[in-house]
Amino acid sequence: MEKSFSESYAAAGVDVTAGYESVELIKAHVKKTNIPGVIGGIGGFGGMFELAANEYKNPVLVSGTDGVGTKLKLAFLMDKHDTIGIDCVAMCVNDVACSGAKPLFFLDYIACGKNYPEKIEQIVKGVADGCVQAGCALVGGETAEHPGLMPNEEYDLAGFTVGIGEKDKLVSGEHLKVGDALIGVASSGVHSNGFSLVRKVFNINEERINVPVAELGKTLGEELLTPTRIYVKPLLTLMEGVRVNAISHITGGGFYENVPRMLNENTLAVIEKEKLFKKPIFDLIQKEGNIPERDMFNTFNMGTGLVIAVDCDKADGAVRILNEAGEQAAVIGEIKDGEKGVEII
């Protein structure tokens, strides 16, 4: 008797029925992300989103894509998969918002060794939660089963977002100038960068991550798996009330690589490290790994997830808006005349 296609495919390691089950399980999570503009539901060949006519005079689409990196190893070890999707969304939408754009929709891509529908549901739940935080819609995605290429219990997660902004209101850095105030906005922790170093420093394993750490007030695993903070709504609120001259999202490469991306020639960002938001996890990483301070600032956000430049006379108002939006914000430095770069004092 000839085998059916699904039986043959299953013999090759791909469970088609698990894919169908995953789609059914995630539908409720996707539905909660619906916003005006979404057309149809998941399951089509393309996610559709309608732009409202005449809402923008000169609209510009801004896109971003990213993944979670080796932070996924923590999720595997802890067998906790419901927040890692927030990280994926955050890494994409924060970048788009730094350009002054509003994220409209998001798509995810999950590559897994074996499709476990309940695990896929938890991953997508996190993605949907992140989309709700960012105010964008989850309009589609892909779950690809890769038997023989990846271990059964592991997966990779990446995402893609598209936002929109009025051309003359985008944050390009052209207004940045000497004398601007630099405002820092607190991170939730390590976020999603530097985890290869973190795992090496702590020799991460299942036993180590489950031991409570007094300095943290929780286990190491709980601290490290804390989701990346999503800054979209506070940033959009800020930009409605104050002209923002430039924004830097402190991701991989820390301050020394990311802050120069928002600078113009002959502008130097001077940041006072004592004004940054203290997070015990960074002191612990530096101590355990015997890591030089410059390397810490060249790898991690050090408790500050965003650096925002505004006119100096608008700084107090900007801090107030961000605080009222639920963020921890403070003036942490200024723009000075000098060779393009960052000086941390």
Written description of the protein model:
With 345 residues, the protein is an alpha+beta fold. It is 34% helix and 25% strand. The chain is built from 13 helices and 14 strands. The strands form 4 sheets. The chain has a 6-stranded mixed β-sheet with strand order 10-12-7-13-11-14. A hairpin with an 8-residue loop joins strand 1 and strand 2. Helix 4 runs parallel beside helix 5. The longest helix has 18 residues. The protein is globular and about 70 Å long. The termini are far apart. The model has no long low-confidence stretch (mean pLDDT 94).
Beta-strand content estimate:
15-25%
Which radius of gyration do the C-alpha atoms yield? 21 Å
- Residue share in helix: 25-40%
Helix- and strand-based class? alpha+beta
- Give the rounded overall mean pLDDT: 94
Largest sheet: 6 strands, mixed
Strand order of the largest sheet: 10-12-7-13-11-14
User: How many helices in DSSP terms?
Assistant: 13
The 3D shape can be described as globular
Distance between the termini: 76 Å
Q: Give the SSE order as H and E letters.
A: HHEEEHHEHEEEHHEEHHEHEHHEHEE
Low-confidence stretches: none
Number of distinct beta strands: 14
